[in-house]
Queue: 3 jobs
Job 1
Amino acid sequence: MALSQATTMFLKSLFPRIKVSSHIPLRAILIVPFVVQIFGAVGLTGWLSLRNGQEAVNEVTTQLRNEVSTRIQERLKDYLEAPKVIAQINWDAINLGHLNLQDTASLTQQFWRQRFLFDSVNISAIYFGSAQAEFIGLGFQNNNQWQIGRAGKSTKGKFHSIGIDNQGKPTELLEIGNDYDPRIRPWYKNAVEAKKPTWSDIYPDFKELRLKVTLVQPVYQDNNELIGVVGVDFVLSHIREFLQSLKIGKSGQTFIIERTGFLVASSTSQKPFSLKDEEVTRIKAENVNNSLISTTANYLIKYFGDFSKIKQSQQLEFLLNSKRQFLQVVPFSDGENLDWLIVVVVPEEDFMEKINVNTRTTIRLCLIALFVATVIGVLTSRWISYPVMCLSAASREIASGKFDQIVEIKAVNELEVLAESFNLMAKQLQQSFANLEKTNAELEQRVEERTAALRQSEEKFALAFQASPDVITISKIADSRIIEVNDSFLEITGYSRQEVIGKTGTELNLWVNPEERSNIYKILETQGRIHHQEINLRLKSGQIRIGLLSGEVVFLDGQLCLLSIVNDITERKEAAEALRKAEAKYRSIFENSIEGIFQTTPDGFFLSANPALAKMYGYSDCSELIANIRDIAQQLYVNPNRRQEFIDAINKYEEVSNFESEIYRYDGSIIWMSEKARAVRDANGEILYYEGTVEDITLRKQAEAALRAEQEKSERLLMNILPEPIAFRLKQDTSAIADYFEKATILFSDIVGFTPIAARVSPIELVNLLNQIFSKFDYLAELYGLEKIKTIGDAYMVAGGLPVPQENHAEAIANMALDMQQEIDKFQTDMGDKFNIRIGINTGPVVAGVIGTKKFIYDLWGDAVNVASRMESSGKAGKIQVTTTTYELLKDRYIFQERGLTSVKGRGKMVTYWLLGKK
C-alpha cells in the first residue's frame, strides 16, 4: 500500500496535468520508476560527460598556458642574466684598475676568457666604447665564428673585423666596414642617459642582419667624468628559436612584444623585422602574417586600450572565426628599460575534437542502455508480481488468526525469506502467551530483592549519618522542628538528644543572626537546595562557631524534610585571619622599604613590585611598572644578556647576591643596580617565580668610574714620561734603575739656524713651532718602535733597541732619520725659508735607566752616546752623518757616501759616512 502511494505521488510530480489513479498495478509500479531512473541517469551521464570534457579542456589549457609562460619567463631570465654578470665583472675590473683600457690585447684576452663563462646563445658580443670614440669588442657572428671588432683612431674611424685563433689572439684582418662611432650607437646613448646599468632599446646589428638588445653599464672616473660604456649583446633570434621549439597544442602560438606593440620574437618562422631598401624596419604584432597572432594582438589592444595598462598576468578568451581561443598575457620586465609582454594563445578546437567524438559515442551507448533496461524491467515485473500476490493472500489469512498457514515461494530469495517469517509468526505468538506468565513470576521475585537492597541502603545511611564528623540534622519543613541529629551535633553543640528532638533552632538559640535563617529558607524555596552557605551558630555554652551549611529538601515518611550538613570551619577562619594580619604586616614592610622588592616570572614579567622599586625605575607607581614591563631582558637591562646570566646564576647557586647591572629607567636614563634574589619552586622543583631586593648603586659606580678615570689619567701621564716597562718597574720598586744594552743605536738631531729665529719671534710662537716639529718626530718614533729620550732646546734625541731589545734597531733609526729630513722640509722660517737639520747616528753599548728621587727621566750613558752627539755636532746642514759601526750594519740595504776622516772632539780623526737613502 505504501509502495503504491509513493509511486502515485512520483508519477503526479512528473506529470502534474495527468490524472493518476490511486490503484496502480504492481507491474506498472515496478516498470515506470525503473525506466524513468534509467532514462534520467543516461541523460545526466551524457550531459555531465560533455560538461566534464569542457571543464577538462579549460583546466588543461590553463595549465598549458601557465606552464608555457613560466618556461618562457625562466628562459628569458636565463638569457638576460649572463649579460648582467659579465658587464658587472668588466665594470668592476675597470674601476679596480685590473683592466688597462689602453691595452687592447689585454681587453681582447679578457673578453675571450669570458666567452666560456656562458653559452654563446646567451652572449653574442662583449665590448667597450670609450668617450673618445674608441671601440674594442669580441663578437659571435652568424657564421658561428668569433671575431674581434675595432674602431677608432687606429682604424681611421672604420670598423675593422679581425680573425682570432683558438688562443684568443688576433690573426688577419677579415673586413673593413663602414664608419663606426660608438657614441652615436643606441646602446651607448642609453647608458649615458641612464647613468647606471640598463638595457638598451632593441636595435639592428651594425654588421649582421639581426635584432639585438644590449646590457650597458657606464664607467666613470672618481670626478664623475665619463670614461666609456661596457656592453654585452644578446641576439633576439635566440628567443624566436626557443619559442619555435615549444609545443602548444596543435596550432597554438606564443609571442613576445614590447609595450609599444613591436614584436620581439614569436613561435612562427616570420622574423620580427622587414628589410626594405637595406633598412631594417621592426614589425608590430598586429601586422604579423599569422592570423592567430595578429588577431590576438588586436584583441588585447581592444580589451585593454593600451599595452601599458597590462600590469599583471591575465587569462582571457576570445572568438576567432566563431571558435573560442584561450589567451594568457604575462608582463615580464628586467630593469627600467626592458618591459615586455609574453602572450600565449591556444585554440579550443585543438582539444575538443576527441571530446566531441566521445560525447556522441556516449549518447549512442546511453540510448542502447535505455532500451535494454526497459525490456529487462518488463520481464522483471512479471517475475516478481506473482510471488508478491501469493504473499499478500497468506498475510490476510494470518491477520484473521489462522497461524497454521504455510507459504512456499522459491522465485526470489528475499520473498522466500519473507515467507519463512510468516510461517514462524504463528509459533512465536503461541510461545509469547506462555512466556508472559513466566515473566510475571520473575518480576515479583525482583521486587522482593529490590526491597531487601533498600533496607540495606537505609542501614548504611544510618551508619554514615551517625559516623560523620560534620554536624547533620533532619528537620521538618512545615514547622522547622528537628526530628533527628547525629552524634557530631551533640558533641559539638553540647546538647543531649532529648533536649534537641522536637525543638527548633530558634528555641535552642542556635542562630546568632536570625536574618541568616531567613536567607537560607528563601534559597530553599526557590532552588530546593543550598550549598556551602557560611553561618554563625551558638553552642549551649554560648560559644560562637562558624560553619559552612549545605542542605537539600528530601521526602521522608510522607513529609518534606530538610537534610542539613554543617562543616565546622572556625579554626580555618581563625587561621585565615592570622594569615591576613601577617600579610598586612608584610605588606607594610613591602610598601615602606627603601630597597626595591620584586617578584618576577621566568619569562620576564613582574608579578609584584614595591613603591621603592617603581620610584627607582622612574615609574609613578607599582601598577604602571608592572603594566609597562613585559620583557625584563629587553626593556630593563642595558645588556639584555644579563637577564639570562641572572637566571643561570640562580639555577646554579639557588640564589645570587651583589648581581650588578646597568638598567634603563622609564625616561631612558641609565642607572646601576645590585640585585639579591632567589628562586621559589613548587613541590616538583619547578620554578614558580624569582623574588628579591634591588639596591641603587649608581652613585657608588660613578665614584668608582671617576677613580678609575683618574688612575688611567695618571697611568697615561706616567707612560708619556717613561717607557712602559720602566714605569711598571718603578711602581714596583722606586730604587734606581740601570740596564746595560750591548747594542743600541742613538740619533741626535739639531735644527740649523734656530737661534736667530728664536730671537725674532715671541716665546709662545717659538714653543708652538717646536711643538709642531717635535710632534712629527714623536709620531715617527712611535711608527718605527723607537724610544724618544729627550729634547733639549731645538735638539731631539731618540734611541733604538731599548728598553726592549730590538733586532732591527739600526734600520729603524735610519728610516726615521730619512723621514725626519722629509718632514722638516714641510716647515718654513718666519722669513719664508725652509728649515734644515743636522743628524748624527752611532751604534754601540749603552747603560739606560732612571736615577735620582725627583722628576724621573729615562736617560742613556756611555761612549756610544757621546759619539752620536759628536756625529750631529760635526755634521752638515741637511745631512745624516753615521759612524763606521752603524755603516757596517746598514751598508747592504742603504746608500752611503764616504765622508772620509773627520775631526771628532775627544776622539780625534774618525772615518764617517753620509746616509743618502735606501737601496
Job 2
Amino acid sequence: MSFRTSPSADYVEDVSPGRGTLPPRARYAASDAQSLSLNGNWRFRLSATADAEDDSFAEEGYDAGDWAEVAVPGHWVLQGDGAFGSPIYTNHLYPFPVDPPHVPTENPTGDHLRVFDLPSDWPSDGGAVLRFDGVESCARVWLNGTELGEFKGSRLPHEFAVGHLLKPGGNTLAVRVHQWSAGSYLEDQDQWWLPGIFRDVTLLHRPAGGVGDFFVHASYDHTTGQGTLRVDSDVDGRVTVPALDIDVATGESVTVAVEPWTAETPTLYDGVLATEGERVPLRIGFRTVVLEDGLIKVNGRAVLFKGVNRHEWHHEKGRALDLETMREDVLLMKRHNLNAVRTSHYPPHPAFLDLCDEYGLWVIDECDLETHGFTEQDWRDNPVDDDRWTPALLDRAARMVERDKNHPSIVFWSLGNEAGTGRGLTAMAEWIHERDPERLVHYEGDWNCRDTDVYSRMYAFHDEVEKIGQRLDGGTHKRRELPFIQCEYGHAMGNGPGGLADYQELFEKYERLQGGFIWEWIDHGVKHPELGYAYGGDFGEELHDGNFVCDGLVFPDRTPSPGLIEYKKVIEPVHIEGDGANGTVHVTNKQDFADLSALAFEWSCQVDGETVESGSLAVPALAPGESAEVKLPEPPADGRGGERQWTVRALLADDTSWAPKGHVVAWGQFAAGARPLPSFPATDRPVREADRITLGPAAFDARTGALLSIGGVPVGATPRLDVWRAPTDNDEGAEWQTDTRYGTLWRTLGLHRMRHRLVSVEAGDDALTVRTRVAPAAREVGLDTVYRWTSDGERLRLSVSVTPQGDWTVPLPRLGVRFGLPEADAVEWFGGGPGEAYPDTRAASMVGRWRSTVDALQTPYLRPQENGARADVRWVELGGLRIEGDPEFWFTARRWTTEQLDAARHRTDLAPGDMVWVNLDHGQHGIGSQSCGPGPLPRYFLKAEPAEFAFVFSTTR
C-alpha cells in the first residue's frame, strides 16, 4: 500500500500574484477619514518550513502568550540577536535551487499576531480596508479567524476589504509570512534577502461616498505659461486649489497661469479632492514630460540627470525606514547637488516620493522585478518570457503605477532591472504606455529599445559613451533616434568611484547624453557588535558576494563618503573658472530651469593657503546655460611673497527647505602666482662617527644609510621606496570585467612583497648617497633607486631617483617613500583637502591649509583598503617634522602598515601599532570603478618610468 502527501501551502509556489486583494489604487498620505496604524510589537513564531504549523493561530482567542515579539515594520532576521535566523546577501545568484516556481522545503516562515481594539470614535458606518505596504516575500492573512487571502510582490501595496469582519475590541490579525515563494524568482535584486513585514500596516476607514482611485493630470505649456488640471476619479467629487482659484468637478479640465514644477523649482499647489464622504489633500505639480527631437524634455527643455540609484537601507532596521531617515536621504542628495534618483530596484516607501515632490528630485520609479539569477543558465526558463508569469508581472506594474501616478517628480516608469527580455516585459510596457501616456518608459535590458522610450545602459565605458553621444554606436533605427542615459555608472564600492569628471564632461558635451545615475546611494552594512559592519559571508551564508553590497556614496550610518563629496563637485550647477593673470572669473549657469538669483557669490584670496582678504562678488542672475565674465578686485597687498590663489564660491543667498543660507553650492579655485619651490645650497658634508653618519640635523646608520633621527626627532623606520598600496575594490575589479584588472596583476607580479637590496652607502663631499635595487622575488624586473641626502645645516633634503629595469608591463600602484615615526598625532598641511583624493577623484580637493589628526585622516571603508591620501601637498607637519615637496606630493599617515591594511577584512581587524607610517608619494595610480565598470582611463595610469622627486625635512619643535 502506498500513499502520498502534498504540502498545505501550495499557494507559496503559485506563480499568480495572489488572491483576495482589492484592485490597486492611488495612494494618498492623508484624508479626513479615520485610520489606525497597526505598527508596533507583534507576537511572533518562527517555523522551519512553510507547512510546519496549522492555521489555528489565526483563530480568535488563540493563546500566543509564550511567543516571542518582533517589531513591525521590521525584518525578523534583524531582530532577536540571531534567534530568528540571519540575513543572506547575494548579488545575483539565487540562494536556493533554480527550479521555478519551486522553492526549498526549508522555507523560514514567520507567524505574526496582533490583537487590537478600534478607537472609541471609530465610525460605525462605511467599510474598512486593511493595507500592507510591504511584506517579503509572500503573506497569507486572516482577520478574526476569517482568511482574507494571500499575496506576493514584496515592495508593493496590498489591500483587503475588512469592514464586515471588524468588531469594537479584540480584533485578531494573523499574518503568515514565507521567506521564499514563487515571487522570490522575481526579486533577485542585489541586496540582502530579508523576510518580514517591513513596511506599514494600516487600517483605513472607508466612508460611504469616500474617495476611490483618482488620477491627477497636471500638464504645463511652456509656450503660454499655463497649466491644465484634470482629476479623474472613480467617485464623483470636486477639486479645489485655492491659490489658483480653481473649483471644478472631477473629470473636468481647467487651464490657468501657474508656476511649473521641476526638480530645481519644485512648486506644489495645495488642493483638495472632495467627494460626498471624504476630503483628500492634493499636492499638485504642473509639468509635462515628452520625448521630442530625440531628447527627454520637461516643460519644453532637455534635462540632464545628475542622479543616484537608491536602495532602501538602514544599518539596524534593513529596509524598514522611517520618515526622518527618508528625509535625511533627500536632504543629503539636495545638499550634494543631485537632481535625480532611480528607485532601484523596486518602488520605495511611498513617503519617499512625497519628499521628492516637495524638495525636488526627478524620479525613475522602478518596478519590483529582477530575475538576474537566470543569467547563470543563459536566461532559460526566465519568468519574463513565460506566459504563465505574465499576470504576476502585470500585477506588479499596475500596483506601482496606480500607487504612484500622482507624483509630479516621477518622469519615468521602469519595468524593472536585469530581467533579460521577453513577452512579459513587452506586456508590461504596453499596459503602462496605455495607462499613463504622460510619462516615459525605461528598461535597461531592452538594448534594441523595442518597448522603451530611452536607450539605457549600465557601466558603459567612456569611449563607448562618447560614440553613443556622437550617434556612432549603431543599433536599431529606433534606438539611434532616442536619448541615452547611464542608469548605472560610477560603481561606488570602496575607494572611488574614479572617472566621474570624465563622464560628466561627455554628458555636457553631447546633447544625446542626458546624464546618469551613480550606483549606488548607501553601503548596505549591517551593524555588528564584533565587526563594526557586516557584509556578505559574515552570517555564514553558503553563497554570498562579500562586500559587493557595500557600494554606496554614503556609509551605512549615512555619513558622506569621499565619493559623494567628489560627485557634488563634479555635478555642481554653476561652473566657476578663472584667470588669475588678468583677474577675471568665468561663471556659467549649468542648471536646466533656474537662474542664479538664489545664489550669492564671494571671493577670497589666499597666500600659502591662508585667506588674507575676502568679499562679495557681483554676478548677474544668469539664465540657464548663460555665462558671464566677472572682474575680480585688485589682489590685496602681501609682502610674504608666497603662493597666491583665488577661490570663488557660490552660496545659497537665503535659507531654503533643504539647506541654510550660506550653504556652498559650487566653487572654483585658480592660481594667481607660482609656488616657490623649496631649495637651499648643500653646505654641510656628511661626517662619520663610529657607526653613525651625521649630516646637518640628521643622523644615519653608517652601514645601511638608514635615517635614524632629524633634529632630535627619532625616525622609527627609514624612508625607502614604496610602490604597494592595499588594493581597493576598484583595483581588484570584478571577475566578469573584460578590461585588465591591475590589482590582480600587481599581486601576481609580487609588488606587495618587494625586496630592498643595498648596493652602496657613499659619503661624499656634500651628500650622503644610498643606492639600492627594489624588486619582487621570482621576477627579473626591478627599480634601481638612489637616495641622495643633502643639508644646509638646519634642513635636510632627500632627492629620490628611480630607474625601472626590465620589461614592466603593468603600471605601479604608487611611487614614493614610506617611513615610520614613533610618535605623531596632530597633522597640518598646505595642499589639497580636506578629504582624500586620487588622480581621477580629485575634483573636490581644495587647496588650502588644513588640520587633522592621524586617526581622522583615515576613510573608514567597510572593507579596509588604500585610503586617506591628500593630493597636491606643498608641505605637511606631523610628529615634530615639517616636510616640503618638490614637486607637490600625496601623503598618507596611518597607525598600521599597508600590509596590515591589505590583510584586514573589517575595520575592527585594524589595531593601532607603536608606529605612525607615513607615505610621501610622487605618484598614485588612478582609481576607476572596475568593481563593476571601467578601470582608470589611461591618462591616470602610473607608468613604470624614470622619475625624480625630492622632499625637504626640518623640525617644528
Job 3
Amino acid sequence: MLSPNSTFYPRPLGVTPAASLPQSPSAPLETSRQLVSDDQQDAYYFRSLEEAGIKLNGPQISAVRHGRGPILTLAGAGCGKTTVLAARAGYLMEVSGVHAGSILLVTFTNKAAAEMKDRIAALPGIRPAAARAVQARTFHSFALTLLRHYGVQEDIFGESRAQHTVLKMLLRQNGMSEAFQPESLLAMLSAWKMQGSDTADLPEKTQDERDAKRVLLGYETWKQDRGKMDFDDILLRAAALLRDPAVLKPLQRRFQYIMVDEFQDTNRLQYEIVQMLAGAHRNLMVVGDDDQTIYTFNGARQESILEFDKVYPGARIVTLDINYRSDARILGLGSELVARNKRRRDKRLRAAGQRGDAPRFATPSSAEEEAAWVVNQICQQVEEGQYPYRDIAILHRTASSSRAVFEQLVLKDVPFVQHGAAPVFYDQSLIKPLMDHMRLSLNPRAMDALPSALGPLYVSRDAGLEWIQRCEQEQPKKYPLIHLSKWDKLKPFQQEQVKERIKLIKSLHKLKPIIAIQEMRRQFYDKYMESGDPTIFTHYKETMLETLDEFEAAVKKFETVEEFVQFADELSRRHREMESLRRAQDSDAVQLMTIHRAKGLEFPCVYWIGASEGIVPHSTALRQDIPEDQKAALTVQQTDAELDMALEEERRLAYVAITRAKQHLYVTSPASHHGKPADVSRFLLEAFGMEVPDKRKTREEARTGGSSSYGNHGHSSSYRSNHGGGNGNGNRSDTGNNRGNNSSNGNWKSIGHAGDSRKRESGTYGTDQRSSSYVQHERQRSAINYKDHREMEMLDERDEDRLIERRGSGIIRDHKAFSTPGLHPKATATTFTSSTSRNAGSSQTSASRAERTETVAVWKCSSATCKAWLRQKPAVPSGKASKKTTSGPPACPLCSGTMIAGTREVPVTNRFGK
C-alpha cells in the first residue's frame, strides 16, 4: 500500500541537520540610473531605455557598451541575455553609428530570431526600417539565403516521414528491410555531415558499415536526382560555399558586427561558419553558458566557450551573473551544485529574483510512491489556490522515468501537457512486442497484435502478414501464427521456432505478469534486442535493458496478465480520449517534460523527480563506480577522462533542472530504482558540503596505499588549458514550423512548406567490431550516449519555437473535461480569472463535444485521496472466460485500495483491439 501523504524536508536524506542550505548572495540594487551618469556621452541612450522600462545592471551595461573585437558574454541562467543582445544592437546603431544592415544576429530557432527582431523594434529611437534591416536569423535561415543567392534551387526535403519512406524503399531494394531503422540511419548521416565530412567517406570496414553506407549513398543519389536537399545539406553546402574567397569576402565586408546566441549549443560546422564570417574583422560577440551545455550528444561543444579566448586571443570576457528568476536559496543550491565541475568557467550568480521558499526534499520508497506524493501535492496546491496547474512543471531525466507519474496524472484526472508527444509507456516501440505477446495469450486472434510478434521471429512484417492473411482466407486457425510454420520462405529451424513461440504464448496468461515478462526476456527478447536485431546499436543496449527493467517494475503490482493488459489498454484508451480534448496553448495544465526540454523555460513551481543515483547521475555515467572485473564485461568502454566528462554533464543537467524554478522547488529521490536500492543523488549531497567517495579512486588508492576524498578541488575551479577538446556529432537544428522564414526577400517562398526538421540523436550504426577510426569518432562525439531509444525520438524534436517561454505548448490532456463534478475544487476567482474567461469562450466547443460522449461502466477507487477510475471490462461470453478472471472489483492500480462500481461520461473514440 502506497503512503498517501508526502513529507518534504529542508534537507535531502543523509545531510546532517547542522548543514546549512546554500544561498546565493543578494545582487546590488544599482541599475543604469545610478551607474551611468548624465555627463557620460552615451547617457542619453540609457536614459531612453529606462523610460521604456529597461534598466540594465553593471555587467549588462559593460556587454552592451562593447565595441570592436571579440567578446565572450557568459550569461548565467535567468540573467537577461536576450535583453543584452537587443540592447547592444540598439547601442551599435544609436550610439556607435553602425548601419543596421551590418549587424548579423544568429540564433537557433525562428521564434528566437523573431523575438529578437521584436525586441530591437521596441527599443526607443530605433526606426522600423532599421529594425527590419538587422539580420536576425537562424543558422539555417542564413545558410539557405546564401545558397539561394548563388543559384541553388533545390527544394527542401525536411519532412521526417517522407525521409523515412525513402529510406524504407531503399532498404527494401537492397534486401535489408529488417536490417536498419530509418531514424538511426538519418541520425548517423546527420552526425557525419555536421563534422563537415563527406558522405563518400563513411566507414566501411564491417559488413554492417558497408550495408548502411550503400543505403545512405543511395539516399543521397535519390535526393540529387530529384533536386532536393535536407537541412544538414543546407549547412554543409553553405560552409563549402563560404570557403570560396569570392563568396566570403563580400559577406565579411557587409556583416561588420556578428552576435551569436546560445553559443554553447553550436556544433562544429556552425562554429566554422561563424569563424569564417568574423575572420576579417573579429567583431564577434558570443553569448552562452557553459554550465548549461547539456546537448553534447547532439553536437554541442563545451569547448567553444571554454577555449574562446584561445581561439580569439585578447577577447574580452563579461559575466552576466545577476539572476532575476529564482529565489536566492534555489539559486544557491544550483550554483553550489554545478561549482563542483572542474571543466567550467568560474562564476557565481547573485540573486535579484522574487523571494519564494527554500527548496524542499523527499525520499519516497519507489517511483510509484514518488508519483503519488507529487501528484497529491500538486492537487493540494491547486485546491488551496496556491498555483494554477499551468504554473507547475514536473521534470524528469529520461522518457521511461516519467512512466509512474504519467499514470498518476492520467488516472487522477489531472490536466497536463506532455512535451514531446510520447506515447503511453506500454505503447513504446520497445515495450509493445512484449505487450502484444501477452495480448495474443488472451486472444490468439488479435490480428492487430500479430505484427509485433513477427519481428522477434526474424520474419519480415509485411511479407509475413501477407502470408498469414492469405492462409486465413483459405483456412482460419485459432492461432494464426501457426501458418508461418508452413511457409516455404522460412527455413526449417525458423518454422520450428514458430511452434515453440506459440507454446510460450499459450502459457503466458497462466503466469503473473512479472513472470511472463521475465520468461519472454529469458527465452528470446533480450537476445533479440541485443544481438538479433541489428537496428539496436551497441551503445544503446544498456539503456534499452534499463527501459525493460522499468517495465518489470511497473507490472509487479498486478496479479494476472489479463488484469495488467486491461490496465495498459485503459491507459492507451484514456490517452486517446485526452487527445480528442485538446485545448488552447494557454490551457491550465501541468507541464510534464524531460530536463533537456525544459532548458530555456521557467516556472513558478518545479518538481524535479528521480534525483537518485542511477537516474541523475545516470547509471551509465557511473561506470567509474563499477568494480574492474564487472567493468570489463560492459559492451562499451570509456576512459576515466570520458567518464569524468559524462558525470560533469549529468551535474550540468541537475543544475538546469534546479534553475528552472522561480519560487518553489521540490526534489524527490526515490530510495529504490528498478527494484534496487538507490542513494540520494551525490549532486545534492555535494551541494550541502557532503563528501561523496569516488569509488574508482578509492580502489586505485587501495592498491597504491594512498588516500583521497571526493571534491578536493574545492568549490571554485576555473577551466584549465590542458583539457582536450571533444568534438560533437550531429547538430542542433533550427526547428520550428519552417527554417529561415524571417527574410523579407522573395527567396523564402521555396521553403514555406518545409515543416519540422527532426534531427535524430539516436547515434550511429555499427557492430561490436567497429573500425578504430569509427570508435574514435564516436568518442569524440560525446563522453557517452545514455538516452533510451524513445527519448532519442523526443529530443530529436527539440523545437524551441514550441518550448521557450510557451508553457502551454505540446499535447494537452485536459481530464477535467470529463471528470466528475467537484473533483478539483475551484480556486479563488482572482487566481483563475484567465482560466474562467477561457472556459466561457469555449462553451460552444464544449457543447459540440457533449454530443460525442457515452456512459460507460467504471470502477472507482473508494479512497477520497486517490480518485482513480478504470473502465470496466465488457462481459465475456459464457464458456470463454479466463480461469484467472475474478468476479469482484479489481484493486486500485495506484493505491491498492478497494474499488466500487459506477458510471462515467467519456468521449466516444476508437477502441483499442476488440
